[in-house]
Request: fold
Amino acid sequence: MTTTPARSPLKSTPAPGAAEVEDGAALLDAVEAHHRRFNVFPSEAAYVAVVLWDAHAHLMDCFEATPRLAFLSPEPASGKTRALEIVETLVPRPIVTVDISPSALFRSVSDGDSRPTVLFDEIDTVFGAAASGNEELRGLINAGYRRTGGIFRSVRDGENHVVQKFPVYSALAMGGLGDLPDTIMSRSVVIRMRRRAPNETVEQFRQRTNEPEGHALRDRLAAWADSIRERIEGAWPEMPDGVADRSADVWEPLLAVADAAGGHWPARARAACLELVNAAKANDKGSVGIRLLTDLREIFAGAERLTSAVIIERLTGMDDAPWADLDGRPLNTRSLSKMLGEYVTAANDRIRPRNIKIGTAVAKGYYAADLADAWARYCPPIPETPATTATPATAQVRALFPVAEPVAVADEKPPALSDPAPGLVTIG
Reply:
């Protein structure tokens, strides 16, 4: 049995003989007020998260990981750039970019003595639908999430070349349209920005006058960070119930900062953590494969088996689903088989279409029992409903996912033999 390594608790008072330090809670309140002057965030939780992120950037070496901060919106003019501008005034050594190559970013962050805070605007141009993937940049962003992370490069050593690991650990905030790659999203605190409503007003940000105000708060954050550095390093903040794994990694530095500040910040931070983690789960459709499995579980609705033709019809008819236009064309039986073939059954066989008899015809299709193991492993849980009578073939599925009364495949109207469905084989 594995146990959690012991880590020092976070103390709330300075060590004996230490100089009196600034009230952390009051300082974070001031930083929040600075944001509220110029930013309209979608929730109170968003203000809390952003303020804690600003402060954590001054304490990078105290944490095992640094959460990415992602300001995302479906439309332009939603305040993402302005949010990054205000963050820029509050964090140490900011570098702002809208287009940076992997090699330039690597060289910028690999010097630990002058580690910058990277602010990457318009990141949808890098990872959006029209982009080419940018796997090297994505790998660099992900590697820089952990303090132990790094990238390897071949460097010249005299007449030879040797492989050397370079550190790339750095704080990173981003702004962009749409979503980011799943691996980045899972490492991020996501703020879903919106255009300001007519009744939402902010001050106009003027760099010449307002930037020095932010810098004054930045200097206070830096001094406060130095005063709590020894106490906060190695702290193990208590996580809210239900926050674990990657979500706990993301929020651990922010909760540690809140605990160090004291006052109302520990409670606000945990409330914000729960709200934003749950919102991320609700918006997370996972990979395309997980979305397919989840939608299949919904359309099966307890049925023992469905033909491929019926599955395709139901999937492409779903609202708010990608199946009618998947990379420019609708999902078909061949692509369905290919996607499901990446997953295995409880017997460790790949999920494959099987013959299903319908009246006097046989068509290819899928059995719920073959999908049950993948549903249990990859799909989010669904609310339980009153149990219904289950046949032996559906017992395993019903035990995992109580659902409504099944729709029997036998009740489906068989396709006309003169116009067989794809994959239909006639018999008799």
Summary: Residues 288-426 form one domain. The chain has 15 helices and eleven strands.
